[in-house]
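Practice problem 4.
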């Protein structure tokens, strides 16, 4: 492989090197090349499928969160998102970059420069991959595409904006961030910080008894629609603020069962205190803040204890020790299993700490006071029983509980996190998401400077780019709320004008999609997550295929019509009006959203489904009558219909509440046997049996 003839475009990067070049059969047959650039922390992996599969494209997925790994999409979790197989189906070779840093730590050479981590490392890696591809295939790629979700959705537009010599199109999904004039060079100000603060505050306030269960029930199909019933004044105010800021209605289960959102706090808590130390003091000491004015709202949750570590628990312990088989450990076991692929089964994942008061543990600071890890500052990202899993910033992210031993002193202190729970009140951004926190343009509460996010998240959006961009956002995303999905559309219109935006930008909404697919989420006690959320990966693959067709053939994908009202995205009820690519599904029981019947009394169920114009036809219709997500009953369809109305009858032999769900898939070519790009949607009705 000729490396010497390559000249870097960006002088920050040293000469490239390759330290692995071999054939691999997993996760998909490919030529595997790994390397980096001298003098910095930038690393890359190239995955070249067989020449007969390559159709001349470079396809670069960007890792979520802060990134920091150049092998994510070649691993098990990345492969579940599509990985090399998806890339090959799209006629490309796959490029990965660690985005210029290792793990959650910055490159000492780059320091806090967000341009390196936001787009420059990705751009130089992609440039070098073209040099290598020409030697592998005999010709360089004729088009290049970048895509990613969450943190990858945050950064993929930056790459398109700032590296027009490299990429022709981008597909961000679940992105978000602020907007500044081009060229942006400053770290972003992310609304997620304030969003998560409000969400965790609601979870904290409503976690006792059956309060969250009643709220979830009220907002599910056939419920009362009133989540505020029975709440005290303060809880009502905070829940209402959460909704007004854009938290998706119908996704309340994720308030009670938060997943990766707490990671953001653990990764930037030290940065927030560094940027705005007065807030964390003012919250407890000055009028105008809940900690001072309404101590009863927080004092019962305070923890400030120095104690000792009773046990260090590895991933293997969590998965194999019967002590952790109880349901309360399920979420922690799931997260540990995901991380095991990265760090191994013997990674110290959690510590057991006993003798703590009944305060709020999630987000609490965990500082080691003695032993080999003395001085290390971590923050609780998961708790079950007396177990605490944790993460931190910089070196603490890389080390976590490495070196911690039984008997080490540890300081458990959640004062900073309790103050963070009201962060949204006192750090109001200009985004429409925060309109409910000001009157006539004036913020209601005392204000502090909006914090900058980690430099690893990159720079602000500008809306200035060449090429094409298809933005996909989810209606039920509890991490990047629907309110974040409308920001970039406005940025493009403001920067380039309506005509250019119409030629270069599309926004599609995926209904009933969360930040994480249901197979990685826990189920509620009453119904499976798969009965109200979908696997959105087929939608992303179809989007990439549509982006390629748009760039190379000039066939633009459709927008999804929507309105954003009172913090809520509203989609038209008919497929013809809605547009986009996903089927529209409705389910009724005895003609309504709720049916009440006796044991043994038949229930008449109806599913109506239709596909938007040009989006293909219906290839499957499945029923799940008991709400547990197995979908064992299906109707025969031949793939020729763009709409269906199907009735079924079911009889329940046991009393209870059942969420009857229909899952409908469409396919662009109407292929009922297709394995990929089967676009799903779900709808449910409630049946109460007495």
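Answer key:
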């Amino acid at each position: 492989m000729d490396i010497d003839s390559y000249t870097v475009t960006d002088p920050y990067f040293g000469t490239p090197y390759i330290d692995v070049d071999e054939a691999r059969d997993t996760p998909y047959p490919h030529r595997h090349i790994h390397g980096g650039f001298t003098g910095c922390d930038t690393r890359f992996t190239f995955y070249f499928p067989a020449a007969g599969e390559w159709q001349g494209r470079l396809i670069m997925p960007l890792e979520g969160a802060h990134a920091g790994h150049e092998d994510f999409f070649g691993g098990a979790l990345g492969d579940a998102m599509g990985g090399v197989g998806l890339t090959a189906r799209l006629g490309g070779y796959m490029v990965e970059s660690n985005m210029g840093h290792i793990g959650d730590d910055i490159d000492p050479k780059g320091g806090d420069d967000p341009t390196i981590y936001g787009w420059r490392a990705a751009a130089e890696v992609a440039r070098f991959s073209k040099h290598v591809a020409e030697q592998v295939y005999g010709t360089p790629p004729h088009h290049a595409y970048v895509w990613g979700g969450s943190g990858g959705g945050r950064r993929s537009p930056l790459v398109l904006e700032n590296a027009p010599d490299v990429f022709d199109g981008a597909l961000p999904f679940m992105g978000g961030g602020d907007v500044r004039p081009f060229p942006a060079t400053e770290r972003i100000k992310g609304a997620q910080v304030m969003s998560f603060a409000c969400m965790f505050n609601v979870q904290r306030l409503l976690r006792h008894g059956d309060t969250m269960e009643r709220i979830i029930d009220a907002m599910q199909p056939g419920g009362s629609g009133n989540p505020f019933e029975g709440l005290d004044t303060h809880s009502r105010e905070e829940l209402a603020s959460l909704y007004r800021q854009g938290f998706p209605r119908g996704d309340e289960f994720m308030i009670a069962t938060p997943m990766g959102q707490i990671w953001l706090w653990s990764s930037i808590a030290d940065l927030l205190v560094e940027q705005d130390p007065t807030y964390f003091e003012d919250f407890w000491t000055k009028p105008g803040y809940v900690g001072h004015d309404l101590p009863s709202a927080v004092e019962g949750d305070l923890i400030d204890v120095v104690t000792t570590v009773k046990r260090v628990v590895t991933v293997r312990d969590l998965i194999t020790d019967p002590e952790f088989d109880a349901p309360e450990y399920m979420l922690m076991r799931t997260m540990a299993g995901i991380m095991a692929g990265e760090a191994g089964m013997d990674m110290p994942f959690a510590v057991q700490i006993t003798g703590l008061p009944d305060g709020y543990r999630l987000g609490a600071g965990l500082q080691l006071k003695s032993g080999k890890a003395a001085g290390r500052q971590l923050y609780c990202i998961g708790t079950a029983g007396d177990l605490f899993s944790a993460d931190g910033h910089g070196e603490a992210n890389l080390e976590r509980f490495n070196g911690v031993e039984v008997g080490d002193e540890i300081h458990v202190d959640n004062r900073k996190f309790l103050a963070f729970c009201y962060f949204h009140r006192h750090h109001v951004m200009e985004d429409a998401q925060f309109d409910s926190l000001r009157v006539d343009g004036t913020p209601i509460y005392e204000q502090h400077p909006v914090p900058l996010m980690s430099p690893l998240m990159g720079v602000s959006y500008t809306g200035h780019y060449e090429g094409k961009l298809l933005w996909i956002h989810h209606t039920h995303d509890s991490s990047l709320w629907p309110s974040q999905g409308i920001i970039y559309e406005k940025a493009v219109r403001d920067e380039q004008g309506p005509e250019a935006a119409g030629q270069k930008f599309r926004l599609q909404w995926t209904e009933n999609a969360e930040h994480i697919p249901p197979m990685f989420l826990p189920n509620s006690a009453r119904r499976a997550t798969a009965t109200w959320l979908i696997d959105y990966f087929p939608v992303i693959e179809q989007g990439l295929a549509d982006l390629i067709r748009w760039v190379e053939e000039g066939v633009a994908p459709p927008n999804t019509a929507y309105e954003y009202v009172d913090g809520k995205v509203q989609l038209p009820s008919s497929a013809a009006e809605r547009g986009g690519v996903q089927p529209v599904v409705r389910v009724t029981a005895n003609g309504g959203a709720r049916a009440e019947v006796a044991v043994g009394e038949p229930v008449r169920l109806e599913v109506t489904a239709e596909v938007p114009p040009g989006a293909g036809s219906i290839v499957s219709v499945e029923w799940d009558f008991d709400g547990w997500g197995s979908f064992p009953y299906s109707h025969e369809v031949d793939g020729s219909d763009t709409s269906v109305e199907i009735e079924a009858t079911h009889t329940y032999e046991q009393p209870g509440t059942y969420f009857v769900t229909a899952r409908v898939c469409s396919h662009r070519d109407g292929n009922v046997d297709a394995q990929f790009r089967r676009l799903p949607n779900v709808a449910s009705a409630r049946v109460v049996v007495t």
